[in-house]
Every structure is written in structure tokens, then in C-alpha cells.
Fold Prostaglandin reductase 1.
Amino acid sequence: MVQAKTWILRQHFEGFPKDSDFELRVEQISEPKDGEVLLEAIFLSVDPYMRPYSRTRMKEGDVMIGGQVAKVIQSKNPSFPVGSHVVAGLGWRTHGLSDGTGLRPVPSGWPQDIPLSLALGAIGMPGLTALYGLEEVCQIQPGETLLVNAAAGAVGSMVGQIAKMKGCKVVGCAGTDAKVSYLKELGFDHTFNYKTITSLKEALTAASPDGYDCYFDNVGGSFSSVAVPQMKQFGRIAVCGSISLYNDTVPQTGPFVQTHMVFKQLKMEGFLVSRWEHKNEQSLLRLISWIKEGKLKYSEHVTTGFENMPAAFMGMLKGDNIGKAIIKI
């Protein structure tokens, strides 16, 4: 028997999450049966999607959802030998049993000098989200101008860099001067702190007077109400998230964008990264090669200690992180 620690959703969030919404529990895990493996978490992830998904896909008393990089410590499944590493959607737990369903081995040939935590970030779901949002949804082309908000986050920072690699002009914004400085280091063409400007419309117009061909939206809400009218004819908008709305107790309303979409003939499409799961193997190898070649840079906001997961989650929702928020066990 192995003792596992888990974080439970004690009660559904009302507004911004608080400590009392979580509960730390201990459970006993039995030895693996034939076809099963026992996993030990090494790195865990906190991501914005957990906030809306906690309401739509979880019951009170469930283990908080989420991904982790885990090590196989016992195995009765030949596909996952002891000592190998996998990406697993086991949620906020230190140990777990799996029959192998949904486990994704860390890509073969993983470079020794690249931390395994990147399998939750630049070489994982956030990196894939950036890649597919640009290539599949926006179908971005060289010479085009891209706008991305929450640009210093796990997804946004990848979006801007990949767009630059594709020969695009990139405008990005973030909520602190330190984050704006980071975007400049990544090679963004124009950056600004959306919390200190006097007018978002003026800032967007100054950064690209001719407008935007593509808009990668992580924020939603009032930001998009201002950004959509700045699009060029036949512009494309990839709706990845709406973090500005996740903690609202009263839904936000208008202004509305339909008139702009009609007269500018815009394409606006929401997406989930799982749509292109069949491409993941080759896409992850592309991301690895870009990291190795120095074309794709990354930053991680690392919190040590499983007991600090709720604090790390709430900090991520407040924007404390530059790059990917990771918990190290």
C-alpha cells in the first residue's frame, strides 16, 4: 500500500477561489494489478482552464483536475516500464494507479539538458495550444500582424515566438512591467502594459495603425470588445480562453461585436487543443527541436511543495507567473 496525498474540491468556487474551497486528504493506494502501473508525481500543473472546468466537469468532493509529469514506480504493464516518465491527467495527487489509458510517454529522445517539467508547458499542452491556434485556426501567414493578450503566460509567450518564427509582426500585452520586459526579450515587435495605459484602443492603434490580421485571444471580456474592431478585412480570431470572465459572479455584457464581424468578414473560432490530438507526436517533436535550436525560449514559475498547490493555482489566476506555472514535488 502507498499513501497518496490529494487536493479535493471541497466546495464549488464562488467568485475568486479561496483556501477553504480546498481540502487536503490522504488515501491508501493498493498494489497495481495486471495491466496497471503505480505513478509518482514529479511535477504538477496549474492552468486557467481548471477554473471553469471545476464547475462544469467536477462535483464537490472530487480530486482537483489537472496534468502531471509522473514516474512509473511499479508496473504490471509492459508499455510503461519502471523508471519511465509519462504525462498523466491524474489531477492534484502525489500518487495514482492507471491501466495506461490516457497516459502519454514523455517523447523519446528527450534531451538531457531540458527539464521534464516542459512536458507540461512549452513541450506540452500550452505549446501545442499555441501551435494549433496559429496554424489550424488562424492559418497565419508570413508578413501578417498578430495580436496576443496574456502574452507572458504559458500559452501567450509561445504564441508570440512561433508567430515571429513564421515571419509575422507580433503585438503583445501583459499586466506588469516585468512581463512586458520579458516579451521584449522574446522578440515581440510591440508590447505594452494594459494596466498602465490610458486607452486600450489607442495602444492597439499605435502598435499597428493598419490593424490586425490575426488575434489570439486568451482573455475575452472587455479586451476583445476593443480588439475586434481593430481587425483587418478577413481577419481571423482564435479564441483560446477568457480568463477575465472566469471568476465573475455577475456575467459581463456587451459591447457586441457582430457588426464588426459582418462588415469586416471576420472569422472567430473557439478551439480545444484535443481536436488535433492525432498530430501531437509530430508536433511535440517540432517543439523539442525549436527548444534545442534556441528558437523557442521558455520561462517557468516554480512552486515547491504539494501542500502549496492551492496557493499556486490562485497565484496563477492573479497573474503572478511569467511563463508556465509548475509545482515541483
